[in-house]
Amino acid sequence: MSVVRGDFDAPAAGGWPPAITIRSAAELRWLVGEVAPDQVLLLSAPGAAGFLGPQAWRALAALAPGFADALCCGAAAGDALAALRAGCRLVVLEGGCAAHAALSLAAAEVGARVLPARPPALDLQTLDLRRPFARAKLSEWRAKAAAPAHDTRASLR
Question: Tens digits of per-residue pLDDT, 42-78?
């Protein structure tokens, strides 16, 4: 099981590494071969808690030991609670859900966190990673995501 590492309230880039949306074991296996665990946050597809389920997400995330991961629950508070019970330590509960505050308190009790919205993420589904252009786009995205906020070198090109 992968666990959330570090403090999500840290100042850099929202406090966690840049997110990449993962939809399959094949995408995840490829990504694990390309990046270090501290370089990305594995993010499920939007609303994946409802159609994939937290247990399946945990099994998928277990293929990437050491990587932080987040399960998106859409606006479904019940799915978020099920995710916390399944051991997810970072869940996304969107849409100004009325239960957000209560679920955040429950999450804190088990060392987890509930985010109010999906973080910006690169979606691997839009890239054919067999092609050099797609791999170059991923490398470019990683470089931008890793640049410090005050780094203006990219804007000088």
Answer: 999 999 999 999 999 999 999 999 999 999 999 999 9
Angle at 18 between CA 17 and CA 20, to 5 degrees: 120
Q: How would DSSP label each residue in 105-134?
A: HHHHHTT-EEESSPPPEEEGGGS-TTSHHH
Instruction: Measure the N-to-C terminal CA separation of the chain; round to a whole number of Å.
Output: 42
Q: Is 148 helix (H, G, I), strand (E, B) or coil?
A: coil
Q: 5-14: which pairs have CB atoms within 8 A and are 24 or more residues apart? A: 5/37, 5/38, 5/66, 5/68, 6/68, 8/90, 8/113, 12/148, 12/149, 13/145, 13/149, 14/119
Q: What is the pTM of this model?
A: 0.79
Q: Count Cβ atoms within 10 A of the Cβ of residue 155 and give its class: 0-12 exposed, 13-18 middle, 19 or more buried.
A: exposed
Count the neighbouring beta carbons within 10 Å of the beta carbon of residue 16: 24
CA atoms within 13 Å, Cβ hemisphere of 57: 34
Hey, how many other C-beta atoms are within 10 angstroms of the C-beta on 36? Answer: 10
> Is a pLDDT exceeding 70 seen at residue 106?
yes
- The vertex-116 CA angle with 118 and 91, nearest 5°, equals 70
